[in-house]
Design brief:
The complex is a heterodimer of chains A (about 290) and B (about 350). Chain A is mainly α and about 290 residues long. Chain A contains 11 helices and 2 strands, in the order ααααββααααααα. In chain B, the strands form 2 sheets. Chain B has a two-stranded antiparallel ribbon. Chain B has about 350 residues and is mostly helical. Classes of the chains: A mainly alpha (about 290), B mainly alpha (about 350). The interface between A and B is large, with 52 and 54 residues.
Chain lengths: ~290, ~350
């Protein structure tokens, strides 16, 4: 029983972080219908950047973490401006593969600057475990989930009330109409990439402050795809709901299936979920089913 | 634009021929002579590079049929190669089947696994399919790493290829084997692309809904594309297994899959020539980087330690991005432009 509760709480907490990263994907997809396959590498590079700032440059938190956010803003702007902007209105195949090129490039940059493959971030959160009923849960997970929820709240307020947020929602709805209303669509694209990178960076820092900075972070980013797929590509609520589900499946499955099937099953459960969702309900729980015309 | 002036089609067979003019024949025979005498003047290390290029061309040709002709993006091609490689490893290494049987079986097993992961393509496309194939890549590699039959993380050794008692031990003999199979695969792809199946693929790529309305069976042709593409990947994987002699899942990573996509794009999607150009260019670039980075590192000590391993992905990523932005039709398109230009030279108007 204690085990079950522990897996559940950890699963939901990790799932919230996945959901946060997935939100970055959904943002870009909604506003510009570009599928960002470089998500994992964005998580990776911003985690390493944090490591560089906090450990290598020995900056205090209140400088190092805002610098990471700034770096993410810069990264998002650069990627949009120099790779996606020239490809506006190109076939979807080019749009997907160009993000693969970006992914490859970013991974090269990481290997180039930080050739060691494993590093530890300083602990950002208190470490004493919390006792919830019979379960013992590391406090870090609860903090991570809390911060993710807070960011979700802030972002949804932004989309609801801020002018830019409304413009971004409008762009997602109809690009032509938005352009006719004199909203600069390109800067909306830019903003969505910047937001996605910032969100990925925060998710990366949360995950790597718990598990350390490794190349496994790329897989963490890829696992967020299962959140997007399960929740439906263009739905923010979908991310919120599907994130904890994926986290739960991963942790419960990892906990109970490992003795039966073998170690490492935890890492491919999200990918198995992707395949199942694809076959059963390809547009996800909350996704919009597209009706196509010639 | 494809042919020089004055080439006429007197009958259908001549219209359809691959080699049309005297120049074609001369160049073709020169290429054959060059390939067959290559082991005489190429060193072993260069032969092994040629072998790797040949294997890559087979895999990329499969990916080109799937992505370039049929428009179904697959980011799990290295995983499908791994299926082929391990199939032949198990069949020839553990069960003692002959090489040719192993080769064919690995093609079929990779094709079948491709079919299974290609099933969602009937309902979804674009990004959804890309994600499915990424999932395929991870699941396949996980199974390989955790199954006792495949040797797990340790890997497994594979015997050298042999046909009728002749063992392909030296690099030169393997060169002949790989080049012949590569040539067969390229010819197959060329003929497939200009026949009924290829035209159906192109119609599906351009607009699958319209293709369906025209009477093309979408389910059948999409799954066929997956089968053929993964079949060729399986063949390439099997050749790779027999060529290296030792298999490990490290040889078939997601990074490789992305690199294969990059090769197809750089060469030119939907052309027969594209995969050849892309594979040759990227593999030579890889060799060049491997050769030049230690030299650079020793002459400029200020370069950070990750230079050697980090520069290659950076260059490839950059090349993929630049090609997509500047020349999305790839090197093959440049080559046709060049041919048209020199045929009209000096009166190019």
């Amino acid at each position: 029983m204690a085990e079950l509760l522990q897996y559940t709480i950890t699963g939901i907490a990790v799932g919230m972080v996945y959901a946060l990263i997935a939100l970055g994907f959904a943002l870009i997809w909604k506003s510009s219908s570009v599928a960002n396959l470089a998500l994992g590498q964005l998580v990776l590079i911003s985690s390493w950047f944090t490591y560089g700032m906090l450990v290598q440059a020995k900056l205090p938190y209140w400088i190092g973490l805002p610098l990471t956010i700034l770096f993410a803003v810069f990264l998002g702007w650069m990627i949009e401006r120099f790779t996606l902007r020239p490809l506006i209105a190109q076939p979807i195949l080019s749009l997907i593969t160009v993000t693969l090129g970006v992914a490859y490039f970013l991974e090269g940059v990481v290997v180039f600057i930080w050739p060691m493959s494993v590093a530890a971030l300083p602990r950002l959160f208190p470490q004493e475990p919390i006792h919830i009923g019979p379960a013992v849960v590391s406090q870090e997970y609860v903090w991570a989930a809390g911060i993710s929820l807070l960011l979700f709240g802030l972002l949804s307020l932004f989309f609801k009330y801020h002018k830019m947020g409304i413009a971004m929602r409008a762009t997602a709805d109809d690009q032509m109409a938005v352009q006719a209303c004199a909203i600069p669509v390109t800067s909306v694209f830019s903003m969505s990439w910047i937001f996605a990178c910032v969100v990925a960076a925060i998710g990366g820092v949360l995950i790597s402050s718990i598990g350390g900075v490794t190349y496994g972070l790329v897989e963490t980013g890829l696992k967020s795809f299962s959140v997007v797929i399960l929740g439906g590509l263009d739905s923010f609520i979908g991310c919120m709901v599907a994130g904890p589900i994926i986290g739960l499946c991963e942790n419960l499955g990892g906990g109970y299936l490992t003795p039966l099937i073998g170690p490492g099953i935890k890492d491919i459960i999200p990918f198995i979920i992707i395949i199942i969702v694809m076959i059963v309900k390809p547009y996800g729980l909350f996704g919009e089913t597209r009706i196509e015309r010639i | 634009m494809d042919l020089p002036c004055g080439t006429r089609n007197y009958d259908y067979a001549r219209d359809m021929a691959v080699l049309r003019t005297k120049t074609h024949w001369v160049l073709f025979i020169a290429l054959l002579v060059l390939l067959f005498t290559a082991p005489l003047y190429l060193s072993n290390s260069w032969l092994s590079r040629c072998n790797l290029i040949g294997i890559t061309i087979i895999a990329i040709t499969g990916l080109n049929i799937l992505t370039g002709y049929c428009g179904q993006l697959s980011i799990g091609h290295a995983g499908f190669m791994a299926v082929g490689a391990y199939t032949t490893g198990i069949l020839t290494g553990k069960l003692g089947l002959p090489f040719l049987a192993g080769l064919i079986c690995s093609g079929f097993s990779a094709g079948l696994i491709g079919l299974i992961f290609g099933l969602p393509s009937v309902r979804v496309r674009g990004f959804y399919l890309a994600i499915t194939t990424i999932a395929a890549q991870f699941i396949i590699i996980w199974v390989i790493n955790h199954w006792s039959l495949t040797g797990g993380f340790v890997g497994m050794s594979v015997p050298r290829a042999s046909i009728g008692g002749f063992k392909f031990r030296s690099e030169a003999s393997q060169f002949y084997l790989i080049m012949i199979i590569t040539a067969i695969c390229i010819l197959f792809a060329k003929n497939l692309a200009r026949g009924r199946v290829g035209r159906a693929f192109i119609a599906i790529r351009d607009n699958d809904l319209a293709a369906e309305v025209m009477g093309i069976n979408l389910t059948y042709y999409k799954l066929l594309a997956f089968f053929i593409g993964c079949f060729l990947a399986g063949i390439a994987g099997a050749l790779f297994a027999h060529w290296t002699g030792y298999l490990n899942a490290e040889n078939f990573t997601l990074t490789d899959s992305i690199l294969y996509i990059g090769m197809v794009i750089i060469g030119g999607l939907g052309t027969t020539l594209g995969p050849i150009l892309g594979a040759v260019l990227i593999r030579l670039l890889q060799q060049g980087i491997m050769y030049i980075s230690p030299v650079l590192e020793s002459t400029f000590p200020a370069i950070p330690a990750g230079f050697t391993s980090g520069i290659a992905p950076m260059v490839f990523g950059l090349v993929i991005i630049l090609f997509l932005i500047l020349e999305p039709r790839g090197l093959a398109h440049r080559w046709t432009l060049f041919k048209a230009a020199y045929r009209l030279w000096p009166f190019s108007y």
